[in-house]
Design a protein that fits this description.
single chain; 134 residues; mainly alpha; 6 helices; 57% helix
Amino acid sequence: MGLATPVKYSTVSAMERKIEKYFAERANRKVEIYSPKKGEVIEVAEPAPLHLTGLCDYLGISGHDLDEYQKKPEFAELIRRAKKKCEAYLVDQCVRLHKADFILKNNFPTDWQDNADNTLNEELKKVLVEFVTK
């Protein structure tokens, strides 16, 4: 299945530069806050969140298009690393804020899912069968 929209990145290096720029801009974000101590607005470093939606928006492509690029062998490793970087950010937020699990489960379903182990060992099955049949 090919890309549904025209190819925006014909080379890995072009996409890689844009991805690196996205992460650099997010890491170096500055915001203005009011400092009661100084009595004025000051600029402070506050890295911006990393996520796939923001990355795709920055690249000018959809999430579906990003997945399609990843299917191309020459783009696969670059996109895998970018996705892992976004995932690592969310994992950190999950640990720090206890709130990112929903996002992780929905953006990285292969690696983040609830598992219910419903298998019973044989001894427990015997006990349950005896209990039910009495």
